[in-house]
Design goal:
Layout lengths: L6 E9 L4 H16 L5 E8 L8 E7 L8 H8 L3 H6 L3 E10 L11 E7 L14 E6 L19 E7 L1 H4 L9 E2 L5 E7 L7
Antiparallel strand pairs: 1-3, 1-4, 2-3, 2-9, 5-7, 5-8, 6-7
């Protein structure tokens, strides 16, 4: 199995006021490591931003392929959660779930921040090369069964672009006309699986 993967799951959420410390312990110490027990979920990076206009927390999951999310191992985790996850779910606010096919997903250098952009289905992002940055873009996957905490919301159509670079560089990044930015600049918190540093 290629450790770079060919798809990305991006999951975002806010957290109920007063529950942030418990959320951080649960998410980094239990939830993300548990997801990586599913064969084909290769790595993850947790991000956070303190601004407005998007989820406070975003988690980037590196997938061998998008179909992993339809497999029995992953579906069992989300449909029959353990007691700790059941207790935490009421504290999650405004969940966002985006799944993208991306071809070979490149390595993300340690410490890089992230900008997230969405574009309509009929206006894909132009190919972009930006010095000292990693850019991942591709079509969003809509043919997925619902996630239990998404309240029946359908996955959006269109295109997703993730731009990774040092935060000071990302302050110069301009989102193109016709696209929207999800939140501000997301700072990395911690890394898991192959994203700890084994990728080249």
């Amino acid at each position: 199995m290629d450790e770079h993967g060919s798809a990305v799951l991006l999951f975002g959420n806010d957290v109920r006021e007063g529950a942030r410390a418990a959320y951080e312990r649960w998410h980094s110490g239990h939830h993300v490591p548990q997801r990586l027990t599913v064969r084909g979920i290769l790595g993850a990076i947790r991000f956070r931003h303190a601004g407005a206009g998007g989820p406070e927390f975003l988690t980037f999951y590196r997938l061998a392929k998008a179909e992993i999310l339809e497999g029995p191992a992953y579906r069992a985790l989300i449909e029959t959660p353990d007691a700790g996850t059941l207790a935490m779910r009421p504290n999650l606010r405004a969940p966002r779930r985006l799944v993208m096919r991306a071809g070979p997903v490149p390595a993300i250098p340690e410490g890089f921040a992230m900008v997230v952009e969405q574009a309509p289905a009929d206006r894909p992002f132009p190919r972009t090369r930006w010095r000292a940055a990693v850019v991942i873009d591709g079509p969003l996957v809509t043919a997925q069964r619902n996630h239990p905490i998404m309240g029946g919301a359908e996955l959006p159509a269109g295109h997703l672009r993730l731009v990774f670079a040092p935060a000071e560089r990302l302050s110069e990044w301009t989102t193109p006309a016709g696209a929207t930015r999800l939140g501000g600049i997301y700072q990395s918190l911690d890394r898991f699986g192959v994203d700890v540093g084994s990728l080249r």
